[in-house]
Amino acid sequence: MAIDVLSDRSYNGIKESVATAKNVATSTAKSAVAQKKVAVQSDDVVLTDSAKTLAKATDAARNASGIDEAKVEKLKAAISDGSYKINYESVANKLIDSEDELSSIFG
To answer: Which of 95, 20, 61, 6 is nearest to 103 (CA)?
Structure first.
């Protein structure tokens, strides 16, 4: 009979331990879900007007070819009909300026 009493006490102790473990696991899970909800609710991003404008400008620049087609056609027409005049002095000065700049960078 003594064994049955111990057995009943052990069994009841185990049941209580299991119930406690389940309660702890449930409360931990609920706490984790609550923390996750709080984290999701607190994440907000607000862009300033200047950031929005910059984003639009960046998108426009990415989508643009970077070539002024009207200017290219105008130059082609001027070259074709012989009216395009080259300013050799300006070209030479720009070439020298470019060389001076490269020389100052690379020594």
So the answer is: 95
